[in-house]
Design goal:
- The protein is built from 4 helices and 12 strands.
- A hairpin with a 5-residue loop joins strand 3 and strand 4.
- Helix 3 packs antiparallel against helix 4.
- The radius of gyration is 19 Å and the shape is globular.
Length: 222
């Protein structure tokens, strides 16, 4: 059960805490468009346990990043080279988004030079679920199920996702989102203040990198 001496939400994880896998981690598989861990869940947990005291605060309040051996993680973002065959599509990235030009290469995920497991403190995901429900109601959508958030009841921390980066710093948001943030356009993040410098860094990063997607299987004509 969760410890009670110090609220987990205001401190980093430490040895002796109760830590569980959150169901959301199931989305971080080899077949997904996310980073994924190449070993077993037991191996991932063991690596987190060894590196737990190196945890640093994440991008979201109540989250913490635990370093992983980058050789054990694959990233969907890969570097371009002279042989890269870039694919293009013009269309919305998600429901309600305005059409934009998207690009990718067909192929497998690539190696990482920086990797983390992201843990969330007890109770953090409850607030996230409540916020998600409020946003869904505003847009007239069904509220998300609580299934992915129940682990908080049983633990001090939850292992929620794996992040792998193909460069020494985390990748910036894509230039379209950055530009929409600056201009306050739909499809951006209203609560994120993007600077012109961040936009420039985004353009340079995504000029030399791209997302990799598995090649679509050839249709069976038999």
């Amino acid at each position: 059960m969760p410890t009670t001496d110090t609220p987990a939400a205001i401190r980093a994880p430490r040895l002796g805490d109760s830590i569980v896998f959150n169901p959301y981690l199931d989305k971080y598989t080899e077949e997904s468009s996310n980073s994924h861990y190449v070993g077993s869940r037991a191996e991932l947990f063991a690596e987190i346990f060894v590196n737990l005291e190196q945890a640093v605060p994440g991008n979201v309040t109540g989250s913490f990043k635990v370093p992983l051996d980058p050789r054990n993680v694959r990233s969907p973002i890969v570097a371009l080279d002279s042989d890269s065959e870039i694919q293009y599509r013009f269309g919305p990235r998600f429901d309600g988004d305005e059409p934009v030009t998207q690009r990718w290469v067909e192929g497998n995920k690539g190696p990482c030079v920086l990797a983390f497991a992201v843990l969330f403190a007890n109770g953090t995901l409850v607030e996230d679920w409540q916020n998600s429900c409020a946003k869904a109601r505003e847009k007239g959508r069904d509220t998300p199920l609580f299934t992915s958030y129940v682990a908080h009841v049983l633990s001090d921390f939850e292992i929620v996702l794996v992040l792998g980066h193909n460069e020494n710093t985390p990748e910036p948001q894509n230039p379209i989102s950055a530009a929409k943030n600056i201009l306050g356009l739909a499809g951006g993040s209203p609560d994120k203040k993007t600077t012109v410098r961040e936009l420039a860094q985004s353009i340079l990063f995504w000029d030399r990198n791209v997302c990799a997607k598995p090649a679509k299987p050839e249709p069976d004509e038999s």
